[in-house]
Amino acid sequence: MSVVKPTLLFLAHRIPYPPTKGEKLRAYNLLKGLSETYDIWLGAPLDDPEDWQYRDALDEYCIETHIADIRGRTRHRAAVEAIARGEPVSYSYFRQRGMMDWVAKLSSERAFDAVFVYSSGAAPYLKAMRRKAGATVMDFVDVDSEKWRALGETAKGPMKHVYAREAKLLLAEERRLGALSDANLLVTDAEAALYTELTGQPAMTVGNGVDTEYWGAAKSIDSPYSGERQRVIFTGVMDYEPNVEAVIWFAAEAMPKLRAMGRNIEFVIAGGRPAKAVQALGEAEDITVTGRVEDMRGWLGHADLAVAPLLLARGVQNKVLEAMAAGTPILTTTPALTGIDAVPGRDALVCETGEGFAKAIVDLLDDKTRRDEMAKSAQAFVQNGYGWGAKVADLVKIIESARETAPAKVA
Q1: C or N: which end of the chain has fewer Cβ atoms within 10 Å?
Q2: What's this model's pTM, rounded to 2 decimal places?
């Protein structure tokens, strides 16, 4: 006899595949894990032309998937629409008429036991719901309004006002959505506390995890490198502004000091969609910009060290967890390690200046014993506390609790 599962509508602001960047990694692993407990209907826009080949990749976990095609949609067009509507640009960018109609039709035909909204960018689709779900769970992941506020503080010219507007409108939406939802989720305790402070709404934490088995095999993947040069790697989507800022900073502040120390070290920037400013870094003889790679494990696992010199970081940095799981020692800034309970000096090294990074890199490269100890400690750390199974179990408990308490909240 087949077991009847509760029904879940999963709304995401982007298709949770391929799981090669932070936002998709979390969404993919939560969706995959939740499919063991719930019958899932997935709705998500797709804006990256390279991802169109994966539009059917999540069918095995879902009763039905609706992948909305927003390829070719520009931020400029979304900004014009957002100004006309008086809403955040992210709302205009991710909204698609066909998916709004799909949500309306689907919710009129069935009453879902729960709706899970992944990121505030998917929130406009809640307005299409024709029948209220048994519980509404909002996964904000990070406090997006605070990210835009921070970007606005350092931006110049017209973008300063654009970022400030986005921050103001998103904060209002975060407050409104928090009041409507039966459970509000953030990725770290610090983000949850900040969300509550800014909105007055309660929040809980469901942290990020890492696929320890997948990344643990990194060193068994064929190496993409040739030659005997020592390599330091940064991984991430390379049109994301904090990543762009990080590698430009590292190239300007740490690389010259490594050269001055007489070290022939290659800085590898691995990740898709490199911005022009990132591509320009590759003109240096000792800096390589890979662009999109098929399997990041080989690049990460066979690098000597990983770096995460992020100046602006919110929530849990998957690139840090992945390096640890792959057995590649990592050096980070304080913001990049926030939200990860690693012990600095044991599981990772924390540096704040270019000189600090350069010295720490040389010290580690010259001390294989310490490098191996740090890699072993970091791997054990993520295996013991950051598996996705435990994170999904926490989420299931929250959804079921919300289903039990939602009727009382409405009453």
Answers
A1: N
A2: 0.80
What does 220-288 look like in DSSP terms, one character per residue? Answer: GSPP---SS-EEEEEES-TTSHHHHHHHHHHHHHTHHHHHHTT--EEEEEE-SS--HHHHHHTTSTTEE
Same domain, 223 and 354: yes
* Cα distances (Å, whole numbers) of residue 234 to 271, 287, 299, 318: 8, 11, 10, 12
Query: What dihedral angle (degrees, nearest 10) is formed by the CA atoms of 320, 325, 331, 334?
Result: 40
Number of domains comprising the chain:
2
For 147-187, the pLDDT digits (tens) are 999 889 888 898 999 999 999 999 999 999 999 999 999 99
Q: Quick: pLDDT tens for 253-270.
A: 999 999 999 998 999 999
Q: Is 31 found in the same domain as 84?
A: yes
* CA-based nearest residue to 78, from 49, 70, 368: 70
Nearest to 29 by CA among 211, 236, 295: 211
Q: Is the model's pLDDT at 410 over the cut of 50?
A: no
Share of the chain above pLDDT 90, in %: 86
- Within this chain, do residues 168 and 270 fall inside the same structural domain, yes or no? no
| Average pLDDT rounded to a whole number, residues 94-113 | 97
Look at residues 305, 324, 321, 311 and name the one whose alpha carbon lies nearest to residue 366: 305
* Residue range(s) defining the domain that contains residue 289: 212-385
The CATH code of the domain that includes 37 is: 3.40.50.2000
The Cα–Cα gap between 257 and 326 comes to 27
Asked whether the beta carbons of 133 and 111 are under 8 A apart, the reply is yes
Q: Quick one: which of 84, 114, 81 has its CA closest to 10?
A: 114
Whole-angstrom CA distances from 137 to 122, 301, 319 are 12, 36, 26
Tokens in use for 29? 């692993």
Asked whether residue 116 is domain-assigned, the answer is yes
